[in-house]
Predict the 3D structure of the following.
Amino acid sequence: MAAALSSLATLTGCGHLPFSKPDESAAACPAAVVLKPLAQTAVFNTPDMAARPTDVLYYGILSEVDAKCSTSGDTLQASLDVILAAERGPATKGDSVDFTYFIAVVGPGDQVLGKKTYGIRIGVPQTAKRAGVTDHIEAQIPLRGQAPGALRIVAGFQQTPQDVVFYEHFRGR
């Protein structure tokens, strides 16, 4: 026990531990979150607004947004990795699906300061039930004098009216 305490005392007195110093050039990023109500979507085999779970070709899942930032003047340079997955539904045809999702910057009072949509195709091998991708996005966010911590980066699937009706009637899968 005395040897362990002696070793601990020796380590705490060291001038350099094996930890790296934080990168001074990295800027604080706004919180990056997936909006839970828009984290799932579905693609249907029918344009019918009364689509049922048996009409789903693919489900889409937006699970995470990771952000790294730096600043250049009054602009925040954000490097985003968005993780998305596709899962086969009961009516699946084909081996890929296209989804549309958005990234928005939200300011104080939940004011949307900017929004951009992105299309992504996810291939699902015939032998698999699901597959996922990481979509990498570089974004420039004007700060307009605001601190990055005063903003939020939000992501979600761009829902169609059919999606909204479907999820009102069939919560989850």
Notes: The radius of gyration is 22 Å. The mean pLDDT is 84.
